[in-house]
Design a protein that fits this description.
The structure is a homodimer.
Chain A lengths: L2 H16 L3 H9 L3 H10 L5 H6 L3 H10 L2 H10 L2 H10 L2 H10 L2 H9 L3 H12 L5 H4 L6 E2 L5 H11 L8 E5 L5 E6 H6 L7 H4 L7 E2 L4 H11 L3 E5 L5 E6 H19 L14 H18 L1 H9 L1 H6 L7 H24 L8 H31 L3 H31 L9 H23 L3
Parallel strand pairs in A: 1-2, 4-5
Antiparallel strand pairs in A: 2-3, 5-6
Helix pairs in contact in A: 3-5, 5-7, 8-10, 15-16, 18-23, 20-22, 20-23, 21-22, 22-23
């Protein structure tokens, strides 16, 4: 729904609230998609939230609850009676419930758990126990499980009775009596079969691609992308079916992983919370280690400059171009490192490609180096009012720096990956620190050769 | 399939090729998933590719062809007879065909188009005409279209006869005689209905959420994420159904958009090609404009330094800490800008939040500034062998710089978005250039106050 429509609806809802016309309000709400109802409720002042939420029919209420922002959920749970809470929780899918519990403060979690039916509580606990970022934490435990002897009608009845989420219906998994995964059959296969009485056994695919529950969630999504699956079964160490991952979970994982990459590249410790839900102190904790580390590492540039202080004070004109040289080196190196990091992360480049990377970056850096040197030389003579010697020194340094920076930017992420680090830490801020030192060393070397100082 | 298994299979295939045992080779291949066959063929030397490909059964061949890398596809098309080409193309889905055509050189495209059945050619042309990044370019034109009067069995027969891709079957769209979209019905709804003879009319949802064919592909994916859809119908200006977007397309869009964001943030012009498929010259073209722009913009820092050259040569100790100050400012600003850019891009932060951002960053920057100043002061006295005055100058500057840098990093992306630029251009390299100038100005100001120079 587009923004203007939502705005209109929101005004209407507020009017109806003022007029206390709850019947009209209810009939306005039930026309809408649950995600939209949640969006509207989220905009209301806190005191109106429970009034509107209580107008929703039972099934809509639970689904809508899952879409609400955590702070609105907490507000509601606080005013719910135990009975209301029980009803909402009974209507939630296990994976949504896990998401909610992970966001709530401890006292609210206690109340939720107290009001959860025993079997569901077991499942929630199971998912919460899996290691961070494992397949187990993104899977859902509600799915359709078939037996070999079923016919189409029996499968359909089974689906009808399971009451599971829509996206988890279309790929059904077949298990043996000890719940080991032995086949997969899609609803499409069943529909496509002309013979109504064919059994699951005859139609199922027995080469099932599955993920282990402890596997990294990223590799699960890679499998789904590779084979174009909308769902992937998850098994335990003994090949027993424990859950399935669906395509909407995959979307979330891809987005989360990209955000994480981006944060690490910008020298921030990744967090799972959104910007405004992270407190000032938490934000400080995410950023300060890297700022400190990078500040301390600049001790190398300080030492280099202290060493060459005499040269610089003797030829003050050189000082003015240090930031430009360091900046260009950092940018050139950062461009490469970020490209390589991203390509490694989405599987377009592999560790074994290191020589190909070096060769390619060498040629690119020669082109870039020459372009920058020529433009810089002309610009310095025209604008900066310096001697040809100084202009030449800076221009030669710039082209050498770019070649070295692109080399460093190309190999560091691959080396990081090989020794088991996340390549993303080798992004611009880190490369910049190294390139700063390299460019200064080159600068003084070239200066002493060209200017004889 | 895990890497070792693939390696084993690949060795086996090569052995069978040497022994010319094509019967065993064929039966090995047909056991595998099409994506895996394509992966294996991609590793073979060029001369073996057609031999292996020709062993595949007709349906497998087309699907496998869609998974191959563009260079392998081109190799195959070059050796195909017209008849072979026709067969492969006949088995391709329209959206896969569009992807292939977009990657091929013009002469190959001509040959493909010549060997494409008329109706398919029309559809391909239609998709190719939509503007870049629009919904039209990611949709598929093969889907199940139902009429109101159909019953479950009739729908299933319709699905059987359509022969469309799996992921496009489960949400079926209902159109009126002039092909206008009037409803949506999922296969699950049909299965869930106890009454076998209920018609589409009675079961369908009439509030259909759809995208316009010219809409940006990113907003299409946002809709799918918001409502948790596995497919979304695409309509033209008159609400006629022209295609659907499925969840695997959404995955690709999310990944592409993140890569684009990351590239822009690293001051690279985004490209749709992978790293190794971009030529050296193209890579140069993607990177050099930004390097030049950033190099030229450092004219400000040069001017500042030229202006203060006297101060610096008079107190040489100050020179050594310039890179550290500029680096820290750039890192601090970059951390904020990247966080804000990403949050804007995934919709967690909005333009109207600018005051909240400033207030939050102000508090974070005070904490970061104090921490860095204290650590730096102690480090300079202990390691750098400088006077208390110099240590104090640098430390005070650092804390002021961090506050200003975080302010700039917080507001620039939002301002960029407001005036219609992509916020991602305001990432680290750009912020760094501004922060360099700001930190130097602050440095000289503080130095003249504390050291009296």
């Amino acid at each position: 729904m587009i923004d203007e429509e939502m705005q209109e609806l929101f005004d209407k809802i507020q009017d109806l609230l003022v007029q206390k016309d709850y019947i009209a309000l209810r009939s306005t709400l039930i026309e809408l998609q649950e995600a939209d109802i949640a969006g509207l409720i989220g905009e209301l002042p806190d005191e109106d939230v429970p009034i509107v939420f209580r107008l929703l029919p039972k099934e809509t209420a639970a689904e809508c609850f899952a879409y609400l922002e955590p702070d609105v959920q907490a507000t509601l749970i606080n005013v719910f009676s135990d009975r209301e809470l029980w009803n909402v929780i009974a209507g939630l899918y296990v994976d949504d419930m896990v998401d909610i519990i992970e966001e709530m403060p401890a006292n609210v979690v206690m109340r939720i758990i107290r009001n959860t039916p025993y079997e569901k509580r077991e499942q929630v606990n199971m998912i919460l126990r899996y290691p961070k970022n494992s397949a187990g934490t993104i899977m859902t435990t509600e799915f359709v499980e078939l037996k070999q002897w079923m016919t189409r009608e029996q499968v359909f009845r089974n689906i009808r009775e399971s009451g599971v989420e829509k996206e988890t219906v279309y790929d059904c998994y077949v298990t043996d009596p000890s719940r080991r995964l032995i086949g997969v059959i899609s609803v499409k296969d069943l529909i496509m079969s002309e013979d109504e009485n064919a059994t699951v056994d005859e139609l199922m695919e027995t080469e099932v691609i599955s993920a282990n529950v402890l596997e990294d969630r990223e590799s699960v999504v890679d499998l789904m992308k590779k084979y174009g699956f909308v769902a992937l079964p998850v098994t335990d160490g003994e090949n027993r079916l424990v859950g399935i991952v669906t395509s909407d979970d995959a979307l979330t994982v891809i987005e989360d992983e990209s955000t994480e990459d981006i944060e690490i590249m910008a020298a921030i410790t990744p967090s799972e919370k959104t910007y405004f839900r992270t407190t000032v102190f938490e934000t400080w904790k995410m950023r300060i280690p890297w700022l400190l580390f990078l500040m301390i590492s600049s001790v190398f540039t300080s030492k280099i400059l202290q060493y060459f202080e005499g040269q610089l004070t003797a030829n003050g004109a050189l000082i003015a171009f240090m930031p430009m040289l360091m900046g260009t080196a950092g940018n050139a190196g950062g461009q490469v490192s970020v490209t390589i990091i991203r390509s490694l992360s989405i599987g377009e480049v592999h560790m074994s490609d290191i020589l190909k990377i070096i060769w390619k970056e060498f040629r690119v850096s020669i082109l870039c180096g020459i372009t920058l040197a020529v433009v810089n030389f002309l610009k310095m003579l025209a604008v900066d009012n310096v001697t040809i010697g100084v202009a030449l020194t800076v221009s030669v340094t710039i082209s050498l720096t770019v070649v070295v920076a692109k080399f460093i930017g190309g190999i560091l992420p691959v080396i990081a990956k090989r020794i088991g680090f996340d390549p993303a830490v080798m992004a611009s801020p880190f490369i910049t620190t190294i390139c700063d030192a390299v460019s200064l060393l080159l600068y003084f070397r070239v200066a002493s050769m060209i200017l004889g100082i």
